């Protein structure tokens, strides 16, 4: 699982290509300017269990991703104060509950968003199309800063951080796998599982915006 990230303040934002200011993490850690809204969404790929040659004559697997959720935000460090469950705990502005554009759903913890990485859950992450900046606007948003802002958009989780605090965010992705009859195309069984990943966010100095 990797994290796709974007910022409206990126100098490449609104360039010729709609994906110029959209990036994909190479692991479970990203760097991000403090005091800047982070737009994020996961990308994931799964490996299906193998079948014997005899089984593969009669059955096939089909896997899809049906949604993803923000589970929680955390803060590592002695002065950590900015953490909590996304769906219930207060943020720095005293707001609780899932943010605008998300909801709750059975099978996933936290606040659920549509998955915009494609239908095939087995396609490698680096072969999945990058979302556009416009698509990232429909995904999750979080803001960390030493100062509490006077206001913030209704779709942004807002946290105040102090000292050498390292924020984290945890997401889940829901995957459904069908067992399909090759002869009839009938779905014989479906299993849904949720896969979680925690990302570490290294806050860096705010970028200069002109």
Offer a few descriptive terms.
single chain, 210 residues, mainly beta, seven-stranded mixed sheet, five-stranded mixed sheet, 2 helices
Q: Largest beta sheet, briefly?
A: 7 strands, mixed
Could you tell me the strand content as a percent range? 35-45%
Give helix and strand order, one letter per element, not per position: EEEEHEEEEHEEEE
**Distance N terminus to C terminus?**
34 Å
How many separate helices?
2
- Ranges with pLDDT <50 over ≥5 residues? none
In total, the number of strands is 12
Determine the mean pLDDT.
Answer: 89
Shape type: elongated
Structural class: mainly beta
Q: Work out the radius of gyration.
A: 19 Å
Helix content: under 10%
Structure explained in plain terms:
- The structure is a single chain.
- This protein is mostly beta strands.
- The chain has 2 helices and 12 strands, in the order E-E-E-E-H-E-E-E-E-H-E-E-E-E.
- The strands form 2 sheets. Strands 3, 5, 6, 7, 8, 11 and 12 form a 7-stranded mixed sheet that branches. A 5-stranded mixed sheet has the order 2-1-4-9-10, with no helix packed on it.
- The longest helix is centred in the N-terminal third of the chain and has 6 residues, at 53-58.
- The two termini are 34 Å apart.
Outline the secondary-structure elements:
Layout lengths: L1 E5 L15 E3 L4 E5 L4 E6 L9 H6 E18 L7 E2 L17 E3 L2 E6 L19 H4 L3 E6 L10 E5 L5 E16 L5 E18 L6
Parallel strand pairs: 3-12, 9-10
Antiparallel strand pairs: 1-2, 1-4, 4-9, 5-6, 5-8, 5-11, 7-8, 11-12
């Amino acid at each position: 699982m990797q994290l796709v990230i974007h910022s409206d303040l990126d100098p490449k934002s609104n360039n010729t290509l709609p994906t110029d200011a959209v990036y994909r993490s190479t692991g479970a850690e990203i760097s991000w300017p403090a005091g800047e809204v982070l737009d994020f969404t996961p990308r994931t790929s799964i490996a299906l269990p193998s079948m014997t040659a005899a089984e593969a004559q009669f059955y096939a697997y089909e896997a899809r991703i049906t949604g993803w959720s923000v589970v929680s935000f955390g803060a590592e460090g002695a002065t950590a104060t900015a953490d909590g469950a996304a769906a219930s705990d207060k943020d720095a502005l005293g707001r609780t509950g899932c943010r605008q554009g998300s909801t709750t759903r059975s099978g996933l913890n936290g606040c659920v968003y549509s998955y915009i990485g494609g239908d095939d859950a087995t396609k490698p992450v680096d072969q999945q199309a990058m979302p556009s900046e416009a698509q990232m606007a429909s995904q999750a948003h979080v803001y960390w800063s030493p100062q509490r802002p006077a206001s913030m958009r209704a779709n942004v989780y807002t946290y105040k951080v102090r000292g050498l605090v390292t924020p984290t965010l945890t997401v889940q992705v829901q995957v459904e796998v069908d067992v399909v009859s090759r002869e009839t195309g009938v779905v014989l069984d479906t299993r849904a599982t949720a896969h979680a990943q925690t990302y570490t966010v290294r806050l860096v100095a705010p970028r200069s915006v002109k």
